[in-house]
Structures are given as structure tokens and as C-alpha cells.
Design brief:
Shape: globular
Helix content: 40-55%
Number of domains: 2
Radius of gyration: 19 Å
Structural class: alpha/beta
Distance between the termini: 9 Å
CATH superfamily of the largest domain: Alpha/Beta hydrolase fold, catalytic domain
Largest sheet: 8 strands, mixed
Number of strands: 8
CATH architecture of the largest domain: 3-Layer(aba) Sandwich
Order of helices and strands: HEEEHEHHEHEHHHHHHEHE
CATH topology of the largest domain: Rossmann fold
């Protein structure tokens, strides 16, 4: 695990140094490359390329948490490529999005010699693992790091509706595809769109009117129909998942799986299952589990999530 340990050491040292003296702001470039809407973070000197894959977020590569982490990596000397994943930004799961990850790695390599790495978060973590097995780039990767990956689409769906009273975000995200079934007024539909665009930024700080709308949506009898529609879609469409996947043996990169044991949105059992499947395919992944946080980093410091897991990996570099 030389490549992963090197990245971890560099990141930890960079974060420590930033705490003592702020590092120079990275250059940030928005561009369209090979049809990919891409955001690149770099210092003046081109560094080792890392592709970051975001999860289910309406802001895509402009997600505040992803932006902060990208700046931290760039401040440590890496060149960070962050593609906008259209399906995930629209709360959908599509096979085409995995191809975007593959093409981003290809674009990151360009004419440079050497290799690259992939870091994926939440649903983007699963996409990163699938991309790492693609024959177009598998020989170009040193590592793939998957934080909070899901194992199966069916598991995601059932867990989302099971949790809807405890944490409504997953079911609200699935509702976006079938908003028409909720019978919302035009005013409420627009308000729902606005809430979902900044949900993680504002959770716990919604206006009373917004909280009331979300309660009505979550308790709407149409939720059963939406769940059935998603179940049918999962069977009919080729949505990205790792259950039954036969390509693990093609991955040549080092593999790390990260998960919080307290994660209720994508359960830790998912990473355990993925690890077992990788080992069956002859791979030697590292599975790192931690406690004290969950899945989503909320704004205003109200809850820590996947983007903080690197700060919990005490002793990893010395293994």
C-alpha cells in the first residue's frame, strides 16, 4: 500500500502545516474536456493527479465539502481533477456516469508519465471502484480510495425508505426523480427544488415553512409508489452497483475502503461485503473502519461525515 500511505502522510502533514501557517491558495480552473464538465485545482507546479468523485449532491463539483477537500489536496501539492457527475447531481444513478470517471482519469493523465489515483465519496466511491476496473485506465492507476461506498442499488433503496422518519435525506433524494407523484403545487415544487439544492448546507436551519413541506412529503402515501418505481427501475436499468459484479479481478490499483461504523445512510456492512468480494477476486484491500461520525458532513459543524474520516486514521501510515 505504498501509494496510499504516501498520499495519507502528505495529506496529514499538509493539514498540520496549514494549521500553523496558511498555504497559498490553489489555482482553480473550470473547463470542458472531452465533453466532461471539469474543475481542476492545482498549485503553480503540476502535481500528482488525483480524481475526486462526488456523491449525491445537487451542487456537483461545487459542493462546499468537496471544494474544501479539493483545496486541501491541492495545497499539499496534488493536482486535483473533479468532474461534475450529471446523474448524481440530478439524484439519479446511471451507468454513463462511471464512464465520466474513466474519461476524467484519461484526461488527467494527458501526456504525463506516471500514474494517477481515484478518491470517491459516498455513491461516487462505488463509481470509483467500477472505473478502476475499466481496461482503458486500470494500468494508469496507483490506487482507488472508496469512502462510504454502497454495495447494491436495492440495498440503497430499501435503506432509504426504512430511514425516512429518522433521516429523510435519502428518501427525499429518491423523490426528486418522481416529484410529479407527490402532487405538489408549483410553489411547493419550486421550494422543494431549492431545499434539495442546499439540503446539507442548511439541515437543522430550515424555515418553519420548509420543515412543514418536508414533513408532508415524507409522510405522503405516494412514497410507497415511489419506492415501487425505484425497485422496478433498479431491475430494468443497468444502474451502477457492485453486487454480482464480476470485474474486481481486473483492478490493478491498491484499494482502500473507508467507512464509519455509525453510518446509517450507507451502512458499514456495504464496505464489508465489498471487501469480501475483492478478496474472493484475489485482491488485498485495506478496510478501515472508524467511529464518531456518520455519512454526511453538515454545514456549520453540526455533524461530521466522510470528509473527516482521513483525520481519524491514526496509525495507518505506520502499518
Amino acid at each position: 500500500m505504498k501509494a496510499l500511505k504516501a498520499v495519507y502522510r502528505t495529506l496529514m502533514l499538509g493539514l498540520m502545516a496549514a494549521g500553523i501557517a496558511p498555504t497559498a491558495r490553489p489555482e482553480i480552473e473550470n473547463c470542458l474536456t472531452d465533453g466532461i464538465d471539469l474543475k481542476i485545482y492545482r498549485r503553480r507546479k503540476e502535481g500528482y493527479p488525483i480524481v475526486l468523485v462526488h456523491g449525491l449532491t445537487a451542487r456537483g463539483y461545487n459542493d462546499r465539502r468537496l471544494d474544501l477537500f479539493s483545496r486541501q489536496l491541492a495545497g499539499c501539492g496534488y493536482t486535483v481533477y473533479v468532474p461534475r457527475i450529471p446523474g448524481l447531481a440530478d439524484f439519479r444513478l446511471t451507468a454513463d456516469d462511471v464512464d465520466i470517471v474513466v474519461r476524467t482519469v484519461h484526461a488527467a493523465m494527458g501526456k504525463r508519465r506516471g500514474r494517477a489515483g481515484i478518491m470517491g465519496f459516498s455513491l461516487g466511491a462505488t463509481y470509483g471502484l467500477l472505473a478502476a476496473a475499466d481496461g482503458r485506465i486500470k494500468a494508469d492507476l496507483d490506487f482507488v480510495c472508496a469512502a462510504g461506498a454502497y454495495y447494491s442499488v436495492g440495498g440503497l433503496i430499501e435503506n432509504a425508505f426504512r430511514l425516512k422518519e429518522r433521516d429523510p435525506y435519502p428518501v427525499l433524494a429518491l423523490d426528486k426523480k418522481y416529484t410529479g407523484l407527490l402532487g405538489l403545487s408549483e410553489r411547493d415544487r419550486i421550494l422543494f427544488e431549492e431545499i434539495m439544492r442546499d439540503y446539507c448546507e442548511r439541515k437543522g436551519h430550515f424555515l418553519p415553512e420548509e420543515d412543514e413541506l418536508l414533513r408532508r412529503i415524507v409522510s405522503d402515501p405516494a412514497q410507497e409508489n415511489i419506492r415501487d418505481m425505484w425497485r422496478a427501475d433498479a431491475e430494468a436499468e443497468q444502474m451502477p452497483e457492485l453486487k454480482g459484479y464480476g470485474g474486481f479481478g481486473s483492478i490493478e490499483a491498491e484499494i482502500m475502503l473507508l467507512h464509519f461504523r455509525d453510518d446509517i445512510l450507507v451502512r458499514a456492512e456495504d464496505s464489508i461485503k465489498i471487501c469480501e468480494e475483492l478478496k474472493k477476486a484475489g485482491k488485498d484491500p485495506i478496510l478501515y473502519m472508524s467511529r464518531g461520525a456518520e455519512h454526511v458532513d453538515l454545514a456549520r459543524g453540526s455533524k461530521k461525515g466522510l470528509f473527516h474520516i482521513f483525520c481519524r486514521m491514526n496509525g495507518f501510515a505506520g502499518r
